[in-house]
Amino acid sequence: MTTTQPVRLNGRYRLDTRIGAGGMGEVWRATDELLGRTVAVKTVLPALADDADFARRFLAEARAMAGVHHRGVVAIHDLYHGPEGAFLVMEFVDGEPLSQVLARYGRLAPPPALHLVGQAADALHAVHGRGIVHRDVKPGNMLVRPDGTLLLTDFGIARRDGATALTATGAVIGTLSYLAPEQVLGHPATARSDVYALGVVAYECLTGRRPFTAENPFAAAMMRLSQAPPPFGPHVPAPVAALVERALAVEPGDRWPDAATFGAAIAQVAAALRSGTGPAPAPDTAEPTVVHQRAPLTPTLVEPGPAATLLATPRPGAPAEAPRPVPGVATPQAEPTVLTPRPDAAHPFGPGGGGLTPRPDATHPFGPSEGGLSVPAGFRPRDGYYVPVEPMCWGGLVIPGGLGRTPRRIPPHEEHYWETFAAAELPEEAVYLRQEELLGHPAVAAVCTAQVLAACSRDPARTVGWELEPWPVQIGRDRWIFHCLAGPGTGEWLGSAFT
To answer: In sequence order, which ranges of 6-131 are alpha helices (DSSP H)?
Structure first.
């Protein structure tokens, strides 16, 4: 939604500043003029709001989330679906996404990392208690206040037990980098899938990187089916590593049984670190690691590789649902579970708040601009999308694994197949889509159109009937854009039709 004049929704909510955008709509900082308070308003794309089936599911899941009352879950205040479209009114959180915290500091020391992940586990326990699986647990969906408290947000693809999800049947749901192995294979997500995703978040907090990385998200997703995550390194105590490794078990039954148990184990280890008890075991006394064969999960969307050899730590004979003592850590007696920042700490993760120092070159990940994102290099903004500053002409597309990779850029006076006429932000949930599926995504379909093509053309009559192609390109750690390419479809051509 682009606006130059104040917009009021339902005669009550004044949209003030856009603070984010995704595949289903936008999030605004707004003012509830009836109650005189600041709120967050999530608007739904008109094309989705007009779809009766989507509207029914949107209302059902919003009502389900409104029943979750927990200090670690963003509260829902109001819901609207009518002539003005559809929107959700939520608690406004004065904080920043955990993804930005990690971008600034690289990695967190174990105490503050456990503090944040423990809060997220408590919030997930409350959500799961209502029969809801979040399905998109990641740093970008966790807001951190200046005092170090964390709130879980963005339930746009959540699913309630027995309900139909907002997303299309048969689609891979969630952000690929955080999907549990069973989700990669097309199995339904469960509460233990959220535990796995939280384990990925914990790994990223402690190391500054995700456990599985590859040239594209699909390859990284497949790695977790047959590989153990890389070692943490000496800066992570063995008990902390054991916590996260269990959360990252390939088989759901080998993970922490639920978020509550994971949270309790985190509190146990955090308390032991504070009290100085339970040093990591020496190599010759460490609990042995057993190698065993895992039978492959039954695929429904992709074919798995052969049975993989995995590293796992044997469970003691404790009941399956009971918290398991972590090797090398003495069990504390009723110790507090919340880490308090030092009195002189300007930020819980800054100097004096855990011994962390921001990266020397750290600024906002993308610089200041609307929605916290800067205009990509080589573009300028126009009407909610970007247009090239100068002609961008390309040869044939290179798409390994279904993802765009930059081919050689060609000067306009040389023969080429395609030219970029517009670009826009690509939501994370669309990164995994196959090339032929991209045009069906709402965010892409709103920009890669004949209307935008004509608006960007020097001579609109010349480009009538040209072929259009969306092309995803990664330009930052967690940021993707898509180029809208156009060509006459008759082979190579000369010159530039746009900018």
So the answer is: 46-49, 52-66, 98-105, 110-129
